[in-house]
Amino acid sequence: MLGLNPHNLTAPSPLSPFPTPRVVLYTSHLSCIFCPVADLNIVPTLRRREKGQVVWVLDDKFHWVQADLLIAHCASCRADYYPDQITFKDKHNSRRQKLEISPEYIRISKHGIWAHRHIAVVQENALNRFHSGWSNFADWLNDSTRSERTLTYRQSQRLFMEHSSRRLLLFHRKDAEFTCKAHPSTRFLAAAVRSAIGVNGGVLEVAMSHGCVDCTHIKRYRSDLIEEGAILEGALDVAGMPAEENVANPAIIPDDPGVAQVTMPPQQEAPIAGEPRGYSRLAVMDGRTIKHNKCALDACEGPLLNYKNGRFCEDHINLRDVCGIIPCGRPARDGELTCDTQSHMDWHRQYTNRFSRLSFPGVRRVIRRQQELADDPTVMGPSLRVELAALSDTPGDQVVHTFKAKSTYCLQTVQWACGFPIGWGKCYRSESSSQVLAILDKIWEGHPEARPSFIAYDDACSLLRHIVTQDANSQWILTTKFIVDAWHYIGHRATDILCRLWCNPAPTNGSQPDLVLLEEDANERVEKRVDSKDLGLSEAFWTEATGN
């Protein structure tokens, strides 16, 4: 490789006196990590398995170069050490692989195509900054390099999956224990990583011990506010409302079991001098409109067996041969979605004609036409109504069918106020309080001592009402205060006593001094309330933590 004459090492080669060194891909391990070492003086070293292979590499300068691939081998346990992974035999004599978390080069094709890790980082930045997919990234790279060799869509997808899998496993602290089938396809690798970090919900163990100045503060007390010159007022204020509408009426208590025994929040006094004051941590919860298709049955939450044009999960795949009108149950015609009942055939034909033409430009065109025709002052604005014919005595919008796969409602995320992700879960039919509480219970199931002091949520009052009515002795009531973020608190009802007393983001009576910070302006000391910017969400953290 150095261009030297093998017969005369003192003389340079006449063909290339100053050759360009070839890239060599090899593992960083010198000894086997699986074989036990009985004697420290006898270490099972690795040997080259076979003659080196010539492969193509996309280097860190976006150049396609040829390189030599060397694979190390353990003669004792038959493990093979590649630059980006290790393959070995498990106790069932099946070949499995273990990923190298920080390889310099990543294989992106089974036909000897590799890429430098810097390319994967550039691809990740393009995803975060420009929302670019792997196909767009491949086109951009090929247009920029203008090389004879090109990065295919499949190779770009593999590069993204290999890099993001390592990032997710490392962030979830699953990198040491993760194994999967040796040399898996992109689909099977993604399935194995999802199984390791969580399919329908997950939690980041490292987040339970996280603490920084942006989400964790030394606990404050009512006496601290008084010493700083705060003027404490009533607690029944509603942010952003005129003073005449902000008068509390003790008689307005709705007939709600969640507020039947509502009382004023207790005032917190500072501990005796010398005793620890403790810390307060604030978590933020929100639902994101990140969806995916699921089984066509409303009650089923299973993933589709075929995401291209499938309608059912693996458990209900047999329903594809049954009439899509529920509860018909008759066999479907060959290649059709309904049985031979004429009314079912006609209704499905109308459904297909209506929704096969439904597209974003089409919806905009319909709304634009409605705006042009809305000369009547009684018309409240454009609307798009989807009307279907009735099926027998059932209105068209109430017909239950399986003609199309359903989708999840949203992705519920929980993170610290600084943006550090904690956990996530899926809401399938709606963002109901029961589903949200189930997600919280699952996240802190193994870490009850790490529950936050405060959780900011746009519908915290409904969540608190649900917790109280379901279990008055819930640990959430004893450990955590649920507050509505200031942006959504403005729109909450002024007559909701539970929301105004217990979910106020910045009560002025000093009942929650952790939520009130004082700052001094040119005239006087004013209160700084927790606003939506203080409870902001970090897109980059969640993209890294969930891959979505």
Automatic annotation (TrEMBL):
Highest taxon, organism lineage = Eukaryota
The chain positions of domain CxC6 like cysteine cluster associated with KDZ read 284-349
Specify the CxC5 like cysteine cluster associated with KDZ domain's residue ranges: 22-144
For this entry, the protein name equals: CxC6 like cysteine cluster associated with KDZ domain-containing protein
